Amino acid sequence: MQLGELEKQVLHYLWQHDSADVKQVFSYFEPRRGGSLNTYQSTLDRLYKKGLLSRSKAGHAFQYRAKVARHELIGQLIHSVTSE
For every residue of the chain, which 3-state class applies, written as one string? Predict the structure, then answer.
């Protein structure tokens, strides 16, 4: 599994903040690195499809939370690199 730089940063954000919707993620990152709301929605969706996030509907938006702990992800990444 490969993770892009923004994917890593979003995961780190969710490990610190427990859960967030796309607008909260966008509000945090936009002043720091720019990008559009759509960029962050796509990033959250990719992380969800990779099995790294869970999501639940809250009103009209999804609330995302990290599905794996930081140390678990590091283990998975090391395993994927060493098994290639």
Answer: CCCCHHHHHHHHHHHHHCEECHHHHHHHHHHHHCCCHHHHHHHHHHHHHCCCEEEEEECCEEEEEECCCHHHHHHHHHHHHHCC
